[in-house]
Amino acid sequence: MVFEMRNFWLCCFALLFCASELSAADYRVFKNDDGVELEAEVVSCVAGESVSVRRRDGRVFKDVAWSRFSMVDRKYLKDWAKAEAEKFSQADLDADARIKVTVLKGQDDDFNDYGDIDDHVIKFAPRVIIDSDEKDRTFTGVTGVLVMIGQGYLRKSEYVVLKRQEFTLDLPAHEEVRWTGKPFKCSYDPDYGGYRYGGYVLVLKNRAGEIVLTKSSKTLWERSAKSIINAKERLGYDREFRNGEELRMTYGLPGSVR
Description:
Elements: H1 6-14, E1 28-31, E2 37-46, E3 50-55, E4 60-65, H2 71-89, E5 99-104, E6 108-109, E7 120-124, E8 127-132, E9 139-152, E10 159-171, E11 176-180, E12 184-189, E13 193-205, E14 211-216, H3 219-223, H4 225-229, E15 235-236, E16 245-246
Antiparallel strand pairs: 1-2, 2-3, 3-4, 5-8, 6-7, 7-12, 8-11, 9-10, 9-13, 12-13, 13-14, 15-16
């Protein structure tokens, strides 16, 4: 849509003070070559071609020809378009992100390789797969925290952190990104106890360190995600990961010596 001539600009100027809840900081007084003013905010801009603006009364004028603006305004619009493009290429993760997250624990129950038929030695090779369905936005500096949780074999009400691993990555628009964690083992025995796999919690944080997305193997743990990712290794917790207590034994935990 192209601008009307001078009468359009005069009409816009007369309506500058229409009610609006938007901040004045979002608006700019534009001028055409005749010096007629229009206060509006930029909605979108294709540098060198056209721009869409929104007046304070909410009316939007689409695809206004670039040539209808003064030289000073064109410089502003060029900078605006450049900054907007950078926003898309370096977006911060938010709750509206169109991403799909899959967690693979890579579990392999080999029992053991040292001859004790009662021992179950569980190997893990965790992976996280993130598929982005974003059209334009590339999320940068996304931090992930994956906690693999163990449940007591004899004391089933006791939960522990088997492994906590952290990673940082970028999520390009319309791409799949994979993270592979460090492999580890845990074990349990009918006589000694130990820990077997109980589930996982994964959180993704934005650049400010705020949790934006939570994925877990149990709904309960989504509500307790913050407590779980901050839980200390080699302490025992209840199902909601409250009040960590020193373990009676650490048999079967990663790094434990039998």
